Amino acid sequence: MALFQSGSLSKLGSLNIAPFLDTPALPNILAEWASILPLVCHLAGYQRDYQSVGKISLLGRLSIGLFPKLGTLEGAAGMLKRGPEYLDQASGCGSHSHVVWDVLWGSVFPCANGAASALVTAFGIESRKQQPTMMPDSLAERPPAPSEGVNSNPPTPDQSTHAVEQPGPRESGAAVEPTDAEPGNVESANRTTPSASTANAPNAPHFRRYQTLHVLNFSRCSREPTLSSAADALFSSVFVEITTSLLIVALSAVLCLFGAYGSSTIIFCSRVSHTACRFFRLYRPSGYLENNEAHETSYMLLSSHQNASTWYLYVGDRAVVDTLLNKTMIVVPMTNFTCWLRRLLLFNHYIQLLAMTFVAAQKGWDGIILVSVMVLDFVSRWIFEGNNVAGQWMRVEGVKLDVKSYEFTGRTMMLGAIQLLSGSRITSWMDGIITPHPRRNAWLKKISDGLDVDSACGGNSWSCHDRQWIELSSALAIESAKILAIDLGTVQGV
Hints:
Keywords: Membrane, Transmembrane, Transmembrane helix. The chain has 19 helices and 7 strands. By secondary structure, it is of the alpha/beta class. The N and C termini lie far apart (78 Å).
C-alpha cells in the first residue's frame, strides 16, 4: 500500500509545506499523473490562431475562458499587435482553409474567413442530420422531358442505356485517363479506374469517386426574441459578468487556502484577462452584411482544393455570403488601450506558463484541482462555444440557414448543374477544376444554349464515345439542375 500512498507527503507536494486548510491523503500515482496531464493536454495546437479568429469574427469580441489553452493569450496579444496581417494569415493557415469559386463573376480566391465559414457550415450540416440526396447517374432513372422547361436536346433512351460517362476535358488533379465505353454503366467524370487484372475479369466492379455537394441557402429574417437569444443576452449582461468575476476571485482565494497555488494563479489571471477583454471593443467594418452589387443572389462554390470530393455551395443573400467568404468581419482598433491590453495578455501568458510548470513540479492536490478546472473549462466551452457560436451569430444578425446535401457520381454533372442553376454565362470559374477543352466547350454550349450535338460541337468531328459523353453529361447536368432548383425554390437558369 505504501507504494501507492505515502501519508502526508503526496498531499503536501514537492514543497512539503502544510496549507492553511488540511487536505486528505493522496495516492502517489494519482498525484504524479494529475500533475503532468494539464501540461500535456492543454497546450494550444498549430491551429490555435485559426480557431480563435473564427470565434472572434463571429462573436465580434475577444473571449477568454476559465482555463485557456497555453498559447491562447499569446495569440490574442499577437492579433492586437499585428491587426489585419494577423487576421489574413490566421484565416488561411488551418486545415479548413478553402478556395472559393464565384460562379457569377468567374473569380477564384482564398476564403477570407476560413474558420468563421467552417463554423457556420458545420452548424448547418449538423443541424440537418439527413442523408444526401442521390442525383441521377443514368437517364433511365428519370428521362428528361423538353416540356419541363429545359432548352436542351437530350439523347434518346437507346443512347443513354449504352453510354458511359468518361472524363472529357481532364479535370485538374484527377489521375484518370479515358477508357473505352462499356454498356450499362454510367461512370463518374473522375472515377477511380480499376486495375488491369480486375478490369478484364468478368463482372468486375467499377469504382466511382462520388462528389458530395452541400448547398447552404442563406436568407435574412427578423430578429425576433427567442429563448436562445434571451439566454445569450443574460450571460453577456454586466450583472452576470460582475457576479461571475467575484465568484471566481473568491474561488481563487479558497484554493490558496488548500495549497493549490498554481491553480489559483491560473484561474485568477484568466479572469483578469477575460474582464479586460470585455472592456475592449472590436468594430465591424463598413460594408459588413451589406450588398454592394445590383443582384441580390450569390452563388459561390467552396472546397479545400480543385480535386476535392466534398463541396459547399453558398447561395442566397449576397450580403451574407459575400461577408462570410470575401470580406473582413472585424477591425482591430489601434488605440492606447489596445497596447495596454496586449501587454496584459502577454504578461498573463507567461504567468500561466510558470503556473502550469509549477503545478507539474509541485504535484499534490494542486495537480488534482488543475485537472478539475481543465475538465470544467472543457464542459463550459462545449456548452457555450463550438458550433453554438455560429448559431448565436445568426440569431444576432438575423440570418437564416437551410442546408441540403446531394451526392453526384462525378464533378462534371455537378459543375454543370451549378452553372445552370446560377443562370450565369460566365464559365471561367471552372477552368481550374475542368481544364478548357473543345469537348468541354461543346458540353457547355449544349447545356446553356440547348443546341444539338452537331451544332454544339461547332463542326468538329467527334468520335462516338465523345458524342455519347457530351449527350449524357449534359442531360445529367440538366436533370440535376432541375432537382436543385425545386429544392431551392428557384427556376433561375433552369
